[in-house]
Amino acid sequence: MAAPIEAAPSTAAPSAAGQSKGAPSENPADLDRQNPEAEIAARAEAYRNWGRWGEDDVLGTLNFIDASARARAAALVREGVAVSLSQPFDMNGPQKGWRRRTNPVHTMLDTGTDAERANQGFPHGIGGADDVIAMPLQCSTQWDGLGHIFDHGYAWNGRRAGDVVTSDGDLVTGIEHAADVIVSRGVLLDIGRHLRPESGELEDGYAITADDLRSCAEAQGETSAVRTGDIVLVRTGQYARARRDGWGEYAGGPAPGLSLTTAGWLHDTEIAAIATDTWGFEVRPNEFDVPAFQPLHQVVIPNLGLTIGEMWDLEELADHCLRLGRYEFLLSAPPLPITGAVGSPVNPIALL
Question: Taking the complete model, does pTM exceed 0.85, yes or no?
Answer without folding.
Answer: yes
